[in-house]
Design a protein that fits this description.
Largest sheet of chain B: 8 strands, parallel, barrel
Number of strands of chain B: 16
Oligomer: heterodimer
Low-confidence stretches of chain B: none
Number of strands of chain A: 15
Distance between the termini of chain B: 24 Å
Radius of gyration of chain B: 18 Å
Order of helices and strands of chain B: EEEEEEHEHEHHEHEEEEEHEHEHH
Strand order of the largest sheet of chain A: 10-9-8-7-11-12-15
Helix content of chain B: 25-40%
Strand content of chain A: 25-35%
CATH class of chain B: Alpha Beta
Structural class of chain B: alpha/beta
Number of domains of chain B: 1
Shape of chain A: globular
Mean pLDDT of chain A: 96
CATH superfamily of chain B: Aldolase class I
Low-confidence stretches of chain A: none
Chain lengths: 256, 304
């Protein structure tokens, strides 16, 4: 059950190219599952930046972790946060990744900072004795945070658009060659990447789960800031109906 | 000390409410605190039919504030009455129904539907939504239209009518006085002010609708000035709203002449904000040996 807690930052590790892993000392943190997220902001922010930031759990437990990339004012402040700085953490929020289908090989397709909920998922697979395949794409070898960690727990395949690491190109190339009746896909990354992955999955009739991202103010279904259009013509709200959704339910061509 | 407050014919257990559009249907907050302890909650704006709302992007952050262009996405009055209201009543939550329509006829139809239910303390007429293309703010800018709407809605129900003001009316005082004359029991002030942001990289507005309603702490001085002016000009109670996050914010509005306050955007940042404000006012009253009703208008120059 979700809970609002105040917790000090235990550690901030800069892992290059504007990416940081933040670890909190939160013994009273409720248990979070892979795919869920939290809303976070430092107490010291006062009234600006005003809103808490949604971040996927990189790991749960009493020392929850998030992966951040410096994008705007909130993440810029997180990137200079010092141990001991107090944060308010509201979580766990949203729908988890569903359990995998028995006997199917999971293929995790990641892009950029979207790797966080997939690392958490890969750890769950590892604990279940399943080795997932991870397809990880970036523009350059600078855009592949936590790839070493993934290499140790999964069968990792890397693609970069400039060819600086792994196969040159995008994740969709190798993905096509891996699809058959005994695989299923879990994806998180930029919308365009997820849309391409979802389209391929649908064409090949492979089950595909996606973790959505949208701006939101509250994280628990109240501000209504995070709608995503479904194929049914209705909106789902990323915070409570997602972030993990069946990719086939999403209208990936909608203006969103 | 006594925390109860009288708003026209309605009695509230305390002066702290939550603002429409920032508190869902109230049920979303029960995990955090006992919502029944608040003076009341104002529902998300209810329309005659369900509304999908605007396409994204719907929200954007501003310095100490935010913009929203939700477009009154809501379940519709029928689903509210059958699915939400019974649960709220079970949990002892005092409910103010915020209602929205683009015509007087539809406002009346919503009021009639709600009149068939028990457990709605008041109707708050949303005549000030900046985020829809019809109705909304056009009603709120015009004293005559607002008065006619107030009278028509009042005739359709025994439930007290409150009217939520737009800060963009040429004369808010004229609109509020017209509503008072037409039988409104309270004035809620203020709704959001229209604002916008532009995405430098894309060279286009951040919000899909271009502009949206500006709310949050940075709105507070404007709201406070309007409440202060209204309090000196109308005879019915004012329910203040606009950037209230803390007990101190709430006290400023009560001293300015408001009889009650609504916590809005602050509930996004801290779901317990309204609870903290309620407890804070109670503590202030104990420390100063004043009833909550004694706080109203203490800063009005006329009283000096």
């Amino acid at each position: 059950m979700k809970k609002l807690i105040t917790a000090p930052l235990l550690d901030r590790e800069e892992i290059g190219a504007g990416y940081h892993v933040l670890t909190f000392d939160a013994p009273d943190s409720p248990a979070a599952a892979p795919g869920q997220f939290l809303m976070m902001r430092a107490t010291s922010w006062g009234d600006a930046p005003l809103l808490p930031r949604p971040m996927s759990y990189l790991s749960g437990g009493d020392k929850p972790q998030v992966l951040i990339k410096v994008i705007g004012e909130g993440t810029a402040r997180m990137a200079t946060a010092q141990p001991g700085e107090e944060y308010s953490l509201l979580g766990p929020l949203g729908k988890t990744w569903p359990e995998s289908t028995l006997g199917k090989t999971p293929i995790l397709v990641a892009g950029g900072v979207g790797v966080a909920p997939l690392v958490f998922l890969a750890r769950r697979f590892q604990a279940q004795g399943v080795q997932p395949v991870v397809l990880y794409g970036g523009r350059t070898d600078q855009d592949l945070p936590l790839s070493d960690l993934l290499d140790s727990i999964a069968d990792l395949h890397v693609t970069t658009e400039d060819g600086s690491r792994g196969d040159k190109g995008r994740v969709t190339g190798p993905l096509m060659s891996m699809l058959n009746d005994s695989v299923e896909i879990f994806t998180c990354g930029p919308d365009r990447m997820m849309a391409a992955v979802a389209t391929i999955a649908q064409e090949r009739q492979v089950p595909c789960q996606a973790s959505l991202e949208a701006p939101m103010a509250c994280g628990f279904g109240v501000c209504l800031g995070c709608p995503v259009m479904k194929t049914s013509g209705e909106y789902l709200y990323t915070c409570v109906d997602g972030p993990c959704v069946n990719a086939a339910d999403i209208d990936w061509n909608a203006d969103q | 000390m006594k925390q109860s407050i009288t708003i026209g014919s309605a009695e509230l257990s305390n002066p702290v409410l939550t603002a429409s559009g920032t508190f869902g249907y109230g049920l979303e907050f029960q995990e955090f605190f006992d919502v029944g302890r608040l003076g009341a909650i104002c529902t998300k704006g209810l329309s005659l039919e369900p509304r999908l709302g605007n396409r994204p992007t719907r929200i954007a952050e501003t310095p100490a504030g935010m913009l929203n262009a939700i477009g009154l996405a809501n379940v519709g009055v029928e689903a509210f009455c059958t699915e939400k209201l019974p649960k709220l009543q079970d949990q002892g939550v005092t409910v103010v129904a915020n209602i929205f329509a683009s015509t007087t006829k539809d406002f009346v139809a919503i009021a009639e539907r709600l009149a068939r239910e028990s457990g709605v303390l008041a109707l708050e007429l949303n005549v000030s939504c900046p985020n829809v293309s019809e109705g909304g703010i056009e009603f709120g800018k015009n004293p005559n239209m607002c008065a006619e709407l107030t009278a028509a809605t009042k005739a359709a129900t025994d439930t007290p009518i409150w009217v939520k003001m737009s800060p963009e009316a040429p004369s808010i005082i004229a609109v509020a006085q017209a509503c008072e004359d037409a039988g409104a029991e309270a004035i809620t002030a203020i709704n959001t002010i229209r604002g916008m942001r532009i995405d430098i990289a894309k060279r286009q507005p951040v919000l899909a609708r271009g502009m949206g309603g500006f709310s949050g702490p940075s709105l507070k001085p404007v709201a406070l000035r309007i409440v202060y002016e209204l309090a000196a000009s109308i005879g019915i109670p004012i329910i203040a709203i606009g950037g209230i996050s803390t007990t101190e914010d709430a006290l400023e509005f009560l001293f300015a002449g408001a009889s009650a306050i609504q916590v809005g955007t602050a509930s996004f940042i801290d779901p317990l904000a309204a609870h903290h404000v309620r407890v804070g006012i109670e503590n202030y009253c104990e420390a100063h040996q004043l009833n909550a009703s004694d706080l109203i208008g203490l800063a009005q120059a006329a009283k000096k």
